[in-house]
Design goal:
Among the domains are: about 165-230; about 235-365, Phosphorylase Kinase, domain 1; about 370-500, Transferase(Phosphotransferase), domain 1. About 40% of the residues lie in helices and about 10% in strands. It is built from 13 helices and eleven strands. Strands 3-4-5-7-6 form a five-stranded antiparallel sheet, with helices on both faces. A two-stranded antiparallel sheet has the order 1-2. It has a two-stranded antiparallel sheet with strand order 8-9. Helix 4 (about 60-65) packs antiparallel against helix 5 and helix 11 runs antiparallel to helix 13.
Length: about 525
């Protein structure tokens, strides 16, 4: 470039030096466009600004919403009907565009989306959807039915001659059976046969139908069993509600967890709440929840139906009632034992099939069972005489037979034996009361004889010592026969007189064995 060209270009650059126009920190030169107040208040300008904002926020939605607007250049607008249709069409487009914007705003990037498709007002000639995008789930079309349903006439067949087709036609019945599979339960998977001409024979359809019904009934039974029965280390909603009420009322402070499980119940540990004037709640409690299922202990009814205290209320057809009576039976038996001074859990409260008792143990650790503890010879001898004394007290003062006494139902705590699990205990006048007592004597005698207690009596001597009866028999078979004869005499007396009076002959009171 020559000097003339540079001199000619200099005046165009402005009066200031050249480095000022290229300075990055210089103030930008802005040109303000003046507008009048009328332009600012113009509605058309407001609409244009709103449209620009919508295009910036939803460019693809607005682009889809914008379409060819029917103008009045080539249409006669003198008709009011035509004007109304044009306005309605424009209103419908704006309404659909608003729905699309709402869908995008609500759904966002979520995998689960909602649709306002049923609320749109798209005209047939204004729809952008194609037939390829139609999903069977979004339509009410039945893929198994023909587009034009054919009705079977009253005479039961259609066609003439060789082309006659009856309602028993194999193809027709097969298609109908395929369509009927939709009536199965939702959890019964029938597969996806859309687009296929499926035909099920009557034999296959009937087998599937029977299987679907049986599965539905089985699932209903399993659901009902799960919701209405207690399971291993778990409680049903009704039992859980009872426990929640005990905690909310302040009777219990908190329930820590399960400490024992058995064939008839589940035992939980809990800390006691606030005591009242009429009810003293121990610091630690044991919650015994009786299982409402009879799977593991099905013969428990024989302990209740012949007990005169519950005979009139016994109902074998209602297992939940049996469980409540079973829990009530243990509460009454524990109360008798407590009044007699026998070491046993103290009853706090009974709510249906949930029994709250005092906890035998300390700091959430239950007292060990007699079978799990290792005792010295002196403690073993002391435990034997204590159990013998308790069996006599139970028979004479409480008028009860434990009926399940063994080393599994005796705890060792604070240097003495505690009796638990007396829900099956019956009175001696029970039709099988003496049999249960003899079984208890056998368990106790065998345990302490194996434990090295030389003073332990055999089962027959222990039975006579506890009951006060003088049954003399040389062997066990004759001994049990005399026991059954005594039970038969008592049963006949009850049937004749209607009273539970013991007819056992004894030589005075049973002896009390002590160390």
């Amino acid at each position: 470039m020559d000097s003339v060209g540079v001199a000619a270009a200099a005046p165009d650059a402005g009066p200031g030096p050249a480095w000022q126009s290229k300075c990055p920190w210089g103030a930008p030169s802005t040109t303000s466009i003046s507008c009048s107040l009328a332009d600012v208040m113009s509605e058309q300008l407001a609409k244009e600004l709103q449209l620009e904002e919508e295009n910036a926020a939803f460019p693809e939605v607005v682009a889809a919403a914008e379409g060819p607007f029917i103008t009045g250049e080539n249409i006669d607008t003198s008709s009011d009907l035509m004007l109304a249709q044009m306005l309605q069409m424009e209103f419908d487009r704006e309404y659909d565009a608003q729905l699309r914007r709402e869908e995008k705003k609500i759904n966002g990037d979520s995998k689960v989306s909602i649709s306002f498709e049923n609320y749109r007002k798209v005209h047939p000639y204004d729809s952008d959807s194609s037939e390829d995008e139609v999903d069977w789930q979004d339509t009410r079309h039945d893929p198994y039915r023909a587009d034009k349903p054919t009705t079977t006439p009253r005479r039961g067949f259609i066609g003439k001659g060789k082309d006659i087709t009856t309602k028993h036609d194999e193809v027709v019945c097969g298609r109908k059976n395929t369509a009927r599979m939709e009536n199965f339960a939702p959890e019964f998977q029938v597969g996806d046969g859309i687009g296929m001409d499926l035909k099920l024979s009557n034999q296959v359809f009937n087998a599937l139908k029977q299987h679907a019904y049986s599965e539905e009934r089985r699932s209903a039974r399993l659901h009902e069993k799960k919701e209405h029965s207690t399971a291993e280390k778990a409680v049903d909603p009704k039992t859980r509600l009872l426990l929640y009420k005990m905690v909310n009322s302040g009777m219990l402070e908190t329930i820590t967890g399960c400490i024992s499980t058995g064939k008839e119940s589940v035992v939980f540990h809990a800390y006691g709440g606030n005591s009242t004037e009429d009810k003293v709640i121990p610091p630690e409690c044991a919650i015994k929840v009786f299982k409402t299922t009879l799977n593991e202990f099905k013969n428990r009814d024989k302990y209740i139906k012949d007990d005169y205290r519950f005979k009139d209320r016994f109902s074998k057809l209602n297992p939940r009632k049996i469980i409540r009576m079973w829990a009530e039976k243990e509460m009454h038996n524990l109360t008798r034992m407590q009044n007699a001074g026998i070491p046993c859990p103290q009853v706090v409260i009974l709510k249906k099939h949930v029994l709250v008792m005092s906890f035998i143990g300390q700091d959430q650790v239950p007292a060990p069972k007699l079978k799990d503890v290792t005792l010295s010879s002196e403690d073993m001898k002391k435990a034997y005489y204590q159990i013998l004394n308790m069996m006599q007290q139970l028979y004479r003062e409480c008028n009860l037979v434990h009926a399940d006494l063994s080393e599994y139902n005796m705890l060792w705590h604070d240097g003495k034996v505690w009796l638990i699990d007396v829900s099956q205990s019956v009175e001696p006048t029970h039709p099988h009361g003496l049999e249960f007592l003899f079984r208890d004597c056998r368990n106790v005698s065998q345990f302490f004889q194996k434990g090295g207690v030389a003073e332990a009596l055999n089962e027959r001597e222990l039975f006579n010592a506890v009951s006060g009866l003088n049954i003399t028999a040389d062997n066990e078979v004759d001994f049990q026969a005399e026991i059954e004869a005594l039970e038969k005499m008592n049963e006949d007396h009850v049937q004749n007189h209607g009273k539970k009076l013991s007819t056992f002959s004894s030589d005075g009171d049973p002896p009390i064995y002590d160390e």
